[in-house]
Amino acid sequence: MQLSQLVKTLDLGHDMVMKFDIVTIFPRILDSYFQEAQIKRAVAKKLIEVETHDLRDYAEDKHRTTDDIPYGGGAGMVMKVEPIFKNVRAILKKSRFKRKEIRVIMLSAKGKIFDQKKARALAQKYKQLVLICGRYEGVDQRVAEHIADEEIAVGPYVLSGGELGAAIIVDSITRLVPGVVGNESSLVEESYENETLEYPQYTRPEMFEGWKVPEILLSGDHGKIKKWREQKQNRIK
């Protein structure tokens, strides 16, 4: 895919920022990550918004309870449906976007695996993502069936909660928002675009501990370098 085609594909088609809402019982857990580097710059440039919501604010008792024992018995606790319903409803009611422009996603180990293709699709189609972060033994199934539009997993493994998965989704999609990445040609050449893994990269010094940069990259012959890089790219199986 050429750069112009990729940028056109990822054009959000509106003047408003891309909005991310993270529903969690630990609203400060991602602060350090979101307040650094690329995401911080994207927020400062008003290209994206990231808002975390304390799920406990929507609990129905004075103890701010968001979990309970599972029906039918079993180990662990299950996150309750009522606080999540109320929190997501409040987000949707407050939103400046139409419902079809919003995607409600529950982070779940049994969800579909998140990949670059999915990141591009979400960046292109939606203006707001609501990311529900589970904890404990799981989340009441009624959240998946009646509140979330889909379930997503960031890999074939189990995490303590959905917050890290939410950060991965925010980060990968933020990179695709036009204006976030300074050199947008890097979006075309990097791993997982065009169904390939990126070619090897080197920088100074030319020699280190006996490990030398490939001669072809020092040749100045851009045609040969381009061919070498294409040969070194691996197709994704």
Description:
The protein has helices spanning 3-10, 31-34, 37-44, 81-94, 116-125, 141-146, 163-174, 185-189, 215-218, 222-232; strands spanning 18-24, 48-54, 67-68, 78-79, 102-113, 128-133, 138-139, 150-153, 196-197, 207-208, 211-212, 234-235. The chain has 237 residues and is of the alpha/beta class. The protein folds into 2 domains: 16-174, 3-Layer(aba) Sandwich (Alpha/beta knot), CATH 3.40.1280; 192-235, tRNA(m1g37)methyltransferase, domain 2 (Trp Operon Repressor, Chain A). The protein has a 5-stranded parallel beta sheet with strand order 2-1-6-5-8, sandwiched between helices. Strand 5, helix 5 (116-125) and strand 6 (128-133) form a beta-alpha-beta unit. Helix 5 packs across helix 7 (163-174). The longest helix has 14 residues, at 81-94. The two termini are 19 Å apart.
